[in-house]
Amino acid sequence: MTRFRTNAIHIGQEPEQVTGSVAVPVFQTSTYAQQELGGHPQFDYARTINPTRLALEKNLAALENGKFGYCFASGMAAITAALSLVKSGDHVIAGSDMYGGSYRYFSKILSNYGVTFSYVDMRNLDNVEQAITPNTKLIYCETPTNPMMNLTDLAELSAIAKKHHCISVVDNTFMSPYFQNPLDFGIDIVVHSATKYLGGHSDVIGGALITIDSSYAERIKFYQNSAGAVPGPWDCWLLLRSVKTLAIRMDAHNANAMKIATMLAIHPKLKGVHYPGLPSHPQHTLAKKQMRGFGGMIAIEIGSLDAAKRFASALRVFTLGESLGGVESLVCHPVTMTHGSIEPARRAELGITDGLVRLSVGIEDIEDLIDDINRGLDAI
After folding, report:
1. C-alpha to C-alpha distance for 149 and 43, rounded to whole angstroms
2. Fold: same for 4-243 and 246-378
3. Residues sharing a CB contact under 8 Å with residue 380, sequence separation 6 or more, in sequence order
4. Domain ranges, ordered by start, for the chain
5. Model's pTM, two decimal places?
6. Where are the alpha helices (DSSP H) in 121-245?
7. What are the b/e assignments for 52-91, b being 16+ CB within 10 Å?
8. Is the distance from CB of 243 to CB of 60 less than 8 angstroms?
9. Catalytic pick from 196, 249, 347, 358?
10. Calculated CA dihedral for residues 195, 120, 156, 190, nearest 10 degrees
11. Among the options 53, 70, 97, 99, which is catalytic?
12. Is 223 one of the catalytic residues?
């Protein structure tokens, strides 16, 4: 049995049969020639199946220790596909702390179609137990969460979901398959915004769902084909190319973030540093239990909107921008960017203040990143 780095380079990427091409070709086609009427070939229409996409789906499924992988045009398209497993009248429990776009989809769109939601703090899974109703069909969480870097115990969450016959769905975007595999803890479905660490170069949008359950896989595949929010072959090729270096990049992200978080943890101008790799993180023990690394995402509390503006404006290496997970470092202000769709009172409850800044630590020279952060802090 081959290991992660080998699988990232080889699974789904065997040399192409006609020419022997080592790189999976970009099959830029919308349809395929069929040999006979009613022959039911494997390849019939490119929304349904594409060889480049199929290679990516096999690869990502293997990296998450899953059996079935399905790719989508964006992370939100993947989340939409996961939530297609519920229907009007069903109840969903979701983590209170999550990406603003996910919350927006749940609260502003799905709720209009008769799906009800409870949002609970999943650091304490008693909250999940207490929120379960006879209509609860799905439990959804991020771990670590965006942007507060809170964790959920995956094994315990899986046990609760199975006990109550609920589907468990975990967004694993922040960790990538290299640092965390929720399926190994009994989770049913893993979500990725492939735009982030899987893509890793800020040049492609994509999403993925991975599962080991054939019944969920069948329903997701049906939805993928029916709704049609599939990625194009060029985007799939970019992701295949990027995943080959995922392990190397994640090690570099992790090493840089660990050094930066350690420096920031003792900085007198900061009111808080959220990074699960720090011993001071309240869930550091859980992080070590279910993660093989701590990732490249850090949230820091600077104190005010003015301080956040001064900090971001002074940076020269970190780029102010939404998204995360690219080789280049980004700084984000959740209140005005990624989490602007969340109501102010709700943001306040979660700790997403005007002074909270999110850092996506890239793989540049660590000394340049440290100098840049110090430049920003000096401007406060």
Report:
1. 42
2. no
3. 269, 302, 303, 307, 310, 311
4. 4-243, 246-378
5. 0.97
6. 126-131, 154-163, 176-179, 214-227, 233-243
7. bbbbbbbbbbbbbbbebbbbbbbbbbbbbbbbbbbeeebb
8. yes
9. 196
10. -20
11. 99
12. no
Question: 65-104, pLDDT tens digit by residue?
Answer: 999 999 999 999 999 999 999 999 999 999 999 999 999 9
Domain 246-378 sits in CATH 3.90.1150.10: yes
In the annotation, is 249 catalytic? no
CATH number of 4-243: 3.40.640.10
Per-residue pLDDT tens for 302-313?
A: 999 999 999 999
At residue 38 the predicted structure's pLDDT band, cuts being 50, 70 and 90, is confident
Is 178 a known active-site residue? Answer: no
Active site residue 70: no
Among the listed residues 97, 153, 171, 235, the single catalytic one is 171
Which member of 5, 47, 221, 271 is catalytic? 47
Tell me how far apart the alpha carbons of residues 230 and 237 are, in angstroms, rounded to a whole number: 13
Q: Is 355 in a helix, a strand, or coil?
A: coil
Q: How far apart are CA 106 and CA 258, in angstroms?
A: 33
Kindly state the tokens that stand for 51.
């060889």
